[in-house]
Amino acid sequence: MKILIIEDDKTLNNGIALSLGRDTILQAYCLAEARKLLDSSIDLIILDINLPDGSGLDLCREIRQTSSLPIIFLTANDMEIDIVTGLETGADDYITKPFSLAVLRARVNAVLRRRTAGEKGSNVFRSEKYEFDFDNMKFLVDGRPVELSKTEQRLLKLFVQNPGRTLPREMLLDRVWTDNAEFVEENALSVAVKRLRQKIAGIPVKSVYGIGYVWELPKGMT
Length: 222
Prior knowledge:
By secondary structure, the protein is α/β, with parallel strands linked by helices. The protein has 8 helices and 14 strands. It has helices at residues 10-20, 31-37, 56-64, 80-89, 101-120, 150-161, 169-176, 187-199; strands at 2-6, 24-28, 44-47, 50-51, 54-55, 71-75, 93-96, 124-126, 130-133, 138-141, 144-145, 166-168, 205-208, 212-215. Strands 2-1-3-6-7 form a 5-stranded parallel β-sheet, sandwiched between helices. Helix 6 packs across helix 8. The two termini are 16 Å apart.
């Protein structure tokens, strides 16, 4: 794996590089340096927003015009509007400073797993309690079948494909209700999440106040 860290604080940049312990880490301290490295077969970018020569948001927009390369924002901008803007710009995740290196490693691993799963085209999710086969529409909880509506299936698939990532309500409404309806009652999302929680015991979907929902990673996952 090859990861590009774009962070102007050299001490923090070096600390992240050491913490990740990957085979190949590329480091940049401004946008100009980062752009020179973008053609280096990178697998993931960790990107600060406030950089000496511009905004990481602009770089994210540039990349999204031609690539789905995974991007994680790592920034001191911690207001709700900042997080929503970062995710809507196209980031795969958004982490605010100060942060735990263990959490950063878990988020990086989760994003890379999602990318690998997407490349394999896997539509089956398995864990200790759950087995969700989206191709055959078979959903098991502790070995017992559960009936899910089409809407609940689409919502569940988004959650399991994005572990540890906060999904904004607006994005969920847009991705789940794909019947070209001109208007979707926002309360429909809350109702759908409530039904999933009722049907799937212990489902780790947590509300993120003012933003959306997240499928929580197990504690201690790195």
